């Protein structure tokens, strides 16, 4: 009988194995080709793997398979390990009439639709560790399709109870107003179960959700959830990649299903990160195109460091411009009026700021078309406040230009009377007021 030829195997610097070279070579095309190039006889060889799929644990499984005559129990826990290692070692050689390991693992993947949710999650965890070693993208895609397919069965409670019991309470703030009526724990039970995903696998699972037409409100809520669980422990560079990825996917969803509060949370985070201009532009577009759903508190964002003014007025002006540009052809009157009310409230908040430049106040007041407002009373009150705060800092010409945005026809009689006694306003505004008030009185006689 031929003597055993020992082979010392160093697997990724993790562990040393002493195995029979003949047994491994009989089932591995890669090793067979490698050792066929050796000349001379030796009783002891050493093989070093730097990037063996799955590391020492996986090599141990391969060794067991070889020593057991081509038999091993394949499970959701080891199916990706065995498949990647089998392809890496080119284990396509049959042994004693049994299917080779590549065939066995490929056959096992046909059973993924019968796996439990817990088994799928176990497989997914192992899969993401071996993503760069997967020989076939179709196997990965079939597996992801199966995982996402389970998410459509909202009436099924998560088998992983420890991670999903109160999921609906955990991320209700990430749900858009339009979606809350139909939202429940039945749609979010799986969020925490997928919280382990690294960014690469996260991208793939979201792409699969979108290609499988999963509900946009669910996808957007999961995107915000992922940000919240991953960003606290991530470095600045990692946070930047996570947030830019989330913005990219949110841009592909129906905006009405996206949480405005969630978008502003991302916006706040972006101020401290070195995000690309493209990502920042997409984020502002997402907010600006839904400006009619924004609340005043959302807009009260402090100015960037180095600026004296209290609030970031430039940002609000950009959002207004996006709203008008995006909605020009499909704008509904109620949306325009909502934005007008929001803008008026914002102007009232920023008007007392002594560092707010006249051009910025004027830009805010004139940003919307006249039809957006039924009344200019709030604008008048804000302008009165601004003129009093800047009593000695404005020229007559600047005051006249500011008053030019007032629509006197849309001022109430009370505001017109107040304007007639208001010394903060320029003389031309008082003349216009008197003419308008006279017309109003005549009309009511």
TrEMBL record:
Entry's Gene Ontology BP terms: protein ubiquitination
Name of one Pfam family that matches: NPH3
Keyword Manganese set for record: no
Superkingdom assignment: Eukaryota
Residues in NPH3 domain copies: 188-440
Pathway: Protein modification; protein ubiquitination
Keywords: Ubl conjugation pathway
Domain BTB: 5-69
SUPFAM superfamilies reported for this sequence: POZ domain
Family to which this protein belongs: Belongs to the NPH3 family.
Name assigned to this protein: BTB/POZ domain-containing protein At3g22104-like
Species assigned in the record: Nicotiana tabacum (Common tobacco)
């Amino acid at each position: 009988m031929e003597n055993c030829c020992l082979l010392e195997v160093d697997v990724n610097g993790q562990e040393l194995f002493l195995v029979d070279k003949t047994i491994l070579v009989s089932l591995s095309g890669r090793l067979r080709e490698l050792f066929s190039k050796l000349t001379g006889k030796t009783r002891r060889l050493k093989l070093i793997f730097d990037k063996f799929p799955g590391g020492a644990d996986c090599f141990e499984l391969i060794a067991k398979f070889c020593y057991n005559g081509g038999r091993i129990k394949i499970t959701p826990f080891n199916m990706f390990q065995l498949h990647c290692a089998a392809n890496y070692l080119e284990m396509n050689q049959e042994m004693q009439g049994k299917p080779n390991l590549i065939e066995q693992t490929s056959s096992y993947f046909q059973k993924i639709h019968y796996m439990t949710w817990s088994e799928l999650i176990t497989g997914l965890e192992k899969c993401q560790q071996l993503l760069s070693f997967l020989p076939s993208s179709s196997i990965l895609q079939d597996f992801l399709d199966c995982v996402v397919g389970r998410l459509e069965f909202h009436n099924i409670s998560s088998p992983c109870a420890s991670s999903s019991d109160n999921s609906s309470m955990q991320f209700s703030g990430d749900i858009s107003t339009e979606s809350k009526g139909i939202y429940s724990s039945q749609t979010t039970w799986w969020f925490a179960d997928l919280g382990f995903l690294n960014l690469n696998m996260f991208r793939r699972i979201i792409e699969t959700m979108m290609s499988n037409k999963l509900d946009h409100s669910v996808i957007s809520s999961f995107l915000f959830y992922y940000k919240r669980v991953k960003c606290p422990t991530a470095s600045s560079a990692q946070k930047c990649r996570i947030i830019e990825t989330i913005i990219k996917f949110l841009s592909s969803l129906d905006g009405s299903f996206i949480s405005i509060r969630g978008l502003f949370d991302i916006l706040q985070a972006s101020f401290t990160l070195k995000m690309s201009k493209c990502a920042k532009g997409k984020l502002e577009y997402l907010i600006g195109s839904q400006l009619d759903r924004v609340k005043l508190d959302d807009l009260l964002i402090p100015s960037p460091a180095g600026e004296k003014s209290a609030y970031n007025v430039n940002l609000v002006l950009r959002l207004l411009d996006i709203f008008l540009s995006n909605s020009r052809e499909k704008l509904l009157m109620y949306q325009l009026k909502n934005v007008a009310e929001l803008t008026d409230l914002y102007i009232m908040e920023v008007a007392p700021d002594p560092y707010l430049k006249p051009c910025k106040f004027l830009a805010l007041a004139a940003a919307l078309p006249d039809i957006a407002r039924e009344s200019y009373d709030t604008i008048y009150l804000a302008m009165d406040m601004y003129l009093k705060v800047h009593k000695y800092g404005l020229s007559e010409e600047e005051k006249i230009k500011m008053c030019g945005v007032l629509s006197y026809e849309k001022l109430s009689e009370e505001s017109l009377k107040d304007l007639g006694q208001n010394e903060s306003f320029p003389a031309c505004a008082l003349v216009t007021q008197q003419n308008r008030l006279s017309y109003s009185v005549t009309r009511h006689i």
